[in-house]
Amino acid sequence: MRTAWLVTGALVLTGVGLSPVPSSAGVSDAAPVLDWSRYATQAIVTGRPPASSEVLLGIVHIAIADTVAGLGYGRPFKFAVRPDHRASAPAAVATAAYDVLRARVPNATGLDATYSGYLAGVPAGLAKDRGVALGRSVAAAVLAWRAGDGFDNTVPYVQRTPGPGVWEPTAPTPPVDIVLTQVRPLALRYRSQFRPDGPDALTSKRYARDVAEVASLGRKDSTTRTAEQTETAQFWSEQTAQQWSRALLQLAGDRHLSLSAAAQMLALVHVSAGDSVIACWDAKFHYLSWRPVHAVQRADTDGNPRTQADPSWQSLLNVNHPEYPSGHACFTAGAAGALRAFFHTSHVRLVMSSLVTGTTRVYPDLSAVRSDVREARIVSGLHFRHSMTDGDALGSQVAGWISARH
After folding, report:
1. Mean pLDDT by groups of 10 residues along the chain of 406 residues
2. How far apart are alpha carbons 365 and 368 in whole angstroms?
3. Which pLDDT score, from 0 to 100, does residue 193 have?
């Protein structure tokens, strides 16, 4: 990615569960990064869908990572900063995150009070002042870069002529996160850069196989879905950005990541996942492929003699956006791909919890997480297997491309 230079005073830039009192952070103390990643998640996800939440988290974490780089620790993600080793890390990180959140999530509950309380725990003096100045300068550069990025656009939904294979809303509310079809990516060159080939032909054998699988396992009152599969479906039904944020913070703690490593890891994952869902939503509203609920109910219209219609069929869960490709698969593969690149291995032990089921799952490696998500969305009655496979491939491509450049 090309680096742009911005001169701000003495700096040269290129291109609610918080601890009330910050620790005195050095290169090995990741507390400011973890604290403000946690608060950013809480501020962003409240009342917001997962995909758009993740894009905002990507923006905040770029500001955090580049601020940490500006302290002299590690490489920047987007804006390189003339190092200031005398600036306070807690003051700098808090200010960068706060300024971005204040601008991009202005209605976040308790944001001002949290920042004031956090900053009050930083010892007064030149280091604190320099930290505030550093964080403010990086945040200003990030906000200027994202100005007019399309996130605040009003995007009306225009229904394509209904017919076999064509998505129709599955709820009376507007399609979820349709605005992402107009949002400028965080790192990709353009939204359709890795657009997949599309859903299977309705008359194909593979399509019929996928319909039969989801019709059996994903039915609301299925007799073939096991209790364990039902729990898996519910486990992965939590707000995805919130669920993954908890896991990433625990991973950073379990690995005892330094201030720099934590900032870099979180930025790489949130940016990769954010661009994965932007690319995913581009594909979703390009192909506008129907959900299993309509595919099964109207199977007598698809021209495939291998499928059977069941007008009474209902899915275990419901979401209101097009089926192909799977958003969960794109998100999970984007996050997993970034973690694989950061740790240089797929053997990353990941602890995931769910507020829906109140349970915790420990995955021995990243492929196990991707596999669990793939099966979860099929037995939820939300996706065909082909959509999960292509969504996984899309997220992996996005993460690979971004990781190679950062």
Report:
1. 32 34 53 98 97 98 98 93 93 98 96 97 98 98 98 96 97 97 98 98 98 98 98 98 98 96 98 98 98 98 98 98 98 98 98 98 98 98 98 98 95
2. 6
3. 98
Alpha-carbon distance of 61 to 208, in angstroms, equals: 43
How far apart, in whole angstroms, are the C-alpha atoms of residue 72 and residue 26? Answer: 11
Question: How far apart are alpha carbons 348 and 368 in whole angstroms?
Answer: 10
Q: What is the identity of the amino acid at 362?
A: V
Distance CA 213, CA 306 (A): 12
pLDDT of amino acid 9: 30
Neighbouring residues of 144: CB distance < 8 A, sequence distance ≥ 6: 6
C-alpha to C-alpha distance for 369 and 352, rounded to whole angstroms:
9
| Strands in 168-295 per DSSP E | none
End-to-end CA distance of the chain: 8
> Virtual CA dihedral for 121, 125, 126, 128, nearest 10 degrees?
10
Q: 158-186: b or e for each residue (b if 16 or more CB lie within 10 Å)?
A: eeeeeebbebeebeeeebbbbbbbbbebb
Task: Report how far residue 73's alpha carbon sits from residue 214's, in angstroms, rounded to the nearest whole number.
Answer: 49
Q: What is the DSSP string of 61-79?
A: HHHHHHHHHHTTSS--SS-
Burial class (CB in 10 A: 0-12, 13-18, 19+), 7: exposed
Instruction: Report residue 137 as tokens.
Output: 């300068």
Residue with tokens 């991009």: 104
Range list of H helices, 71-194: 89-104, 111-120, 126-146
- Position 351: which residue type? V
In one-letter notation, the amino acid at residue 129 is D
**Spatial separation of the C-alpha atoms in residues 355 and 16, rounded to whole Å:** 16
The closest of 104, 115, 28, 120 to 63, measured between CA atoms, is 104
How far apart are alpha carbons 331 and 108 in whole angstroms? 24
Tell me the two tokens of residue 81.
């900063």
Helix (H) or strand (E) run with residue 396 in it: helix 385-405
**What does the block give as tokens for 248?**
């990433």
Predicted local distance difference test score (pLDDT) of residue 150:
98
List b or e across 66-85, with b for residues whose CB sees 16 or more CB atoms inside 10 angstroms: bbbbbbbbbebbbbbbeebe
- Sign of the dihedral through C-alpha 286, 367, 352, 78: negative
Q: What is the CA radius of gyration of the chain?
A: 22
What is the spatial distance between Cα 301 and Cα 370, in angstroms, rounded to a whole number?
A: 33
